[in-house]
Amino acid sequence: MYITKIKWWLLLICIFGYRWAGAHSLPDSKARLSVQSEQVVIQFRTPLEVLEIGSKMHINLQLQQSVDSLKQYLLLHMAVDDSLNSKWQIVIGKMFTQESTDITIGKFQEFVCEIYLVPGNVNSLRNFTLHCDIVLHQIPNQSILFSVEQDWRNGVTKDNAQQIGVIAWDIPSGKIFPLQVRLDEGSWIKGFKTMFTLGMQHIKEGTDHLLFIITLLLPACLLVENKKWSGFAGLKVSIYKLLKIVTAFTAGHSVTLLVGAWGWIYIPSQVVEIIIAASILISAIHAVKPLFYSKEIFIAFGFGFIHGLAFSQTLTELDIDGVNLLLSVLGFNLGIEVMQLYIIALTIPWFILMSQVQQFKYFRNLFACLVALASVGWILQRVTGNDNFISIGVEKIFLLFPWLIAMLGALALVLYGYQKICSKSIREA
């Protein structure tokens, strides 16, 4: 009897093995959860070939009949229940295919869809049982890997996504067991802290944002004579002007960060990024020849308005709503400001010192020309969608930012000290 069972299993493997083997050469399916205030959104990803084998249909998302059949298949192979016996609604959202890459097999066609799980009782949102055998019922060697990619109250984002389990065939029992989803309640403090850290990280990695504000502040300590930059304006005047520019930039991006995150204003990201690169070019030209002297606060506010749209896109991608969005905007903006002020505090003292030496004009013009070159590289990159040697080089150079600040400080001290020594020698003579 035992020998007979083995023969039957060998026969089944011979008959269906070619399909299973083909599917096994492709990556496992993935389900990425986004926990929102009233629903859980699953981004389900699986190789298109695997889905066609599992669903036994040829998938063409251009045909409505194919789309409808696929939705019915997905709904048939998913169910949710919880300890409160609430009724869950499952809704299939947008579906599309894309070309993806796997380390072992290279490029392949991937099917992606959004699945909305809406509980009858919101108290079940973080504690439920998910039954799902999409493709698994036909392909035993496939698995669905589950992770939480967004959970605001627990401070989870794409950068620190958490694996929560796997749905696959249990070989000893020959069954597919459901996934027990048990998530911590979390708190608004964790969410706020994460957004604050994300804001700091955004500025830390935002080379273009940093370069804009630094370049705009570069000549802020100078006077203008005959439409040219002249000597040092004085410590008190310089600090006051620097504060006004920084405050104006902060006010500008704070406004659009708020309205952009709420979806009240929208400009395509490519357009925003091109304008930001252009703003850097304009600030570089201004550092060589004053274009808007005494009007820097208006320029800072205007360009801050544009930079804020880029900031808001980060929050929009997180798909946060309600009070959590308000707290996210506040935390994210505070993070931006803290990191921005930190960078400014590292650079401005050296600009103030160097503004008082004759050699500053050479440093200022050289720095402005390099920034203009970087901005041109970014403009080309964002218009064409392809990196170029300038944009790549700038990012590599900025990895050395701490060393560049140290070199700036050393140069400022040397030039300022040298000028003081020369002035003292002239007075004594």
Automatic annotation (TrEMBL):
Membrane-spanning ranges: 206-224, 245-265, 271-288, 297-315, 327-353, 362-380, 400-418
Q: Name one Pfam family in it.
A: HupE_UreJ_2
Which UniProt keywords are present, listed alphabetically?
Answer: Membrane, Transmembrane, Transmembrane helix
Q: Record's superkingdom?
A: Bacteria
Query: What is this protein's record name?
Result: HupE/UreJ family protein
